[in-house]
Automatic annotation (TrEMBL):
Residues 1-296 form the Inosine/uridine-preferring nucleoside hydrolase domain. The lineage of its organism: Bacteria, Bacillati, Actinomycetota, Actinomycetes, Micromonosporales. Keywords: Glycosidase, Hydrolase. It comes from Phytohabitans suffuscus. This is Pyrimidine-specific ribonucleoside hydrolase RihA. GO terms for cellular component: cytosol. The gene is rihA. It holds the Pfam family IU_nuc_hydro. InterPro entries: Inosine/uridine_hydrolase_dom, IUNH, Ribo_hydro-like.
Length: 315
């Protein structure tokens, strides 16, 4: 799989899960502007790989703005750095010397098996890949994305952040004809970072676990201030979990359209669960999560990562 992300606190945990799970072959981590600017998101991906001891996985920077709209970031949630909380130092993991879209194209064409794409940020990189390099389409096994919602949004009343930032890109992906799975807010809000979850991570008693506790503590503080929710939903790792164990996330086939022009609804995912439009299904839409199994998977992943090389100085 290739993980396309915009770290972001929940992206950080998605990176750790994708790198740790023995069932996945993580070919690359690519970054896109979304939760924060491209430069910061890319630095954050390298920081996460450094503190988690993830090596041998290329990190490549992609698109720095949406296809059409002006970039809107989520610094009210993720802080000025995009990954506020821990006191990160300079990363030791290098940046790949090619654009993320070029890297994805090369990996897809060269890999002996079809590859799953897991975007957990705006879909700008994925849409650009599909638009500019149609020859890769047969090499994509599926696209499992975190974005959208069957109900309300989180950046506007009906717009989920990742889709709202670049709805034109999302429209390309949902109408690509490729197998698409949508992990939306209706499911991610089932995976809340409760005090019990934080205590469970803290009990691992490793430098990496402490980083995760600091990330989740900051994340919880902003969710409480912005949304009145002291227990934040951990969105992005659920997309990775769906790839690892598909049965962990219950989905149904449904038509999904992306609203591009609505004055109050731009960026909304219009999910026709009851087949009222007559449109053919173009996505598997997540409805339910096996929450205990998800947390077992994620916490277990944190025990397998090597963490920083010098345990006495994790940054």
């Amino acid at each position: 799989m290739i993980l396309d992300c915009d770290p972001g606190h929940d992206d950080a945990l998605a990176i750790m899960l994708a790198a740790a799970d023995p069932h996945l072959d993580l070919l690359a981590i690519t970054t896109v502007a979304g939760n924060t600017t491209l430069d910061k998101a890319t630095l954050n991906a390298r920081r996460v790989c450094t503190v988690a001891g993830i090596s041998g996985v290329p990190v490549a920077a992609g698109c720095d703005r949406p296809l059409v709209a002006k970039l809107r970031i989520a610094d009210d949630i993720h802080g000025e750095s995009g990954l506020d909380g821990p006191a990160f130092g300079e990363p030791s993991v290098p940046l790949a010397g090619e654009h993320a879209v070029a890297l994805m194209r090369r990996l897809l064409l060269d890999h002996p098996e079809p590859v799953t794409l897991v975007p957990t940020g705006p879909l700008t990189n994925i849409a650009t890949l599909l638009r500019d390099h149609p020859s890769v389409r047969p090499r994509i096994r599926e696209i499992v994305l975190m974005g959208g919602s069957t109900g309300r949004g989180n950046i506007t009343p009906y717009g989920e952040f990742n889709i709202f930032v670049d709805p034109e890109a999302a429209d390309i992906v949902f109408h690509s004809g490729l197998p698409v799975t949508m992990i939306g807010l209706n499911v991610t809000h089932q995976a809340l970072v409760t005090p019990e979850v934080v205590a469970r991570i803290r009990a691992l008693d490793t430098p990496l676990a402490e980083v995760c506790v600091e990330l989740m503590t900051f994340f919880g503080s902003t969710y409480e201030r912005v949304f009145g929710l002291p227990e934040p939903p951990l969105h992005d790792p659920i997309a990775v979990a769906r790839v690892i164990a598909p049965g962990m996330v219950r989905c149904v086939d449904a038509p999904v359209a992306v609203e591009l022009t609505g004055a109050h609804t731009r960026g909304a995912t219009v999910v026709d669960l009851h087949r009222r439009t007559g449109a053919a299904p173009n996505a598997q839409v997540a409805l339910a999560l096996d929450v205990p199994r998800f947390w077992d998977l994620l916490v277990g992943a944190l025990t397998t990562l090597p963490g920083p090389r010098d345990a006495a100085s994790p940054w």
